[in-house]
Amino acid sequence: MVRAAVLTSTGTPLRIAGIDLPDPAPGQVRIRLAAAGVCHSDLSLSNGTLRQPVPAVLGHEGAGTVTAVGEGVTHVAPGDAVVLNWAPSCGTCHFCGLDEPWLCADAGAAAAVPYATLSEDGTGLYPGLGTAVFAEETVVRASAALPLPDGVPLTEAALLGCAVLTGYGAVHHSARVRAGESVTVHGIGGVGLAALQAARIAGAGTIVAVDVSPEKEELARAAGATEFLVAGEGTAKRIRELTGGHGADVAVECAGRAEAIRTAWSATRRGGRTTVVGIGGRDQQVTFTALELFHFGRTLSGCVYGNSDPAKDLPVIAEHVRAGRFDLSAMVTGRIGLDGIPEAFEAMLAGRGGRSLVVFPQG
Asked: In the predicted model, is pLDDT for residue 363 greater than 70?
């Protein structure tokens, strides 16, 4: 039996319970978690913004140590440190054939199949986004366990599984920021902090961080922001003033709110690029006039998982970490236990802090 934070039904608080995991089947891996990041997507899964079969164990940003492997698994072995990949690509679907693994049609299949049971009554449990890392241990598809490159601390490596791959990829793959370009990042949570660091690594010039909370300024500047603005009326105008009157070359939106997306778009120059990373609800409607679409010639694009290929991107990011260019620990503003996840959800709703990290006892 292992301890886990269980979502009994949509919209209810998580509760700590014992769960039973099966031995890994062929093509599966069992992992003892070292840490799990608390992502806004987990909150969206818990409250019904994103679909999630219940009862479930949420959590999709994690790292840990392999304890057992099923038949046919050869790329990892017991004792190996791994990062969880919540969207493993199948390699054979239409999108994988287009070399777009982040859009893989099969990536979410594991989330729809029970993977464990409640110890108290044998009820089947679904794995949040196929990984279920809000637990001391988990069992996943082998393709969801990526070897952790050398030189990256195992605890902080959890952040690589979502926030870092998403923020880094949004800058380098989706927006394709070039040296000297101006960048604005809207929403300074875990993904936003990663995007700021990625913009700095890309050699961006002016880097403007925007958030509703003035308390985020210190975090943002430490991550690479050269300017900080509190979101509100007139934000787009202020960004244009900070970027020579033209607007930013690139905007990365990480909040998933209609007003933030609209502001990010309006803050870019003619011909600028806006990448939307944040996951908003169906009620979040963004409007544009036909005339402005023509006149400004801007590009607006969605971005899933940073448009990343984790197997290729992790070694690159790890090199930035080893070289001191990317600081994982600076993104963490709270280290908690499983019972601290509800409070971490509340902090996200209130716009407080960066990433909360569930740290599991080892040994």
From this structure: no
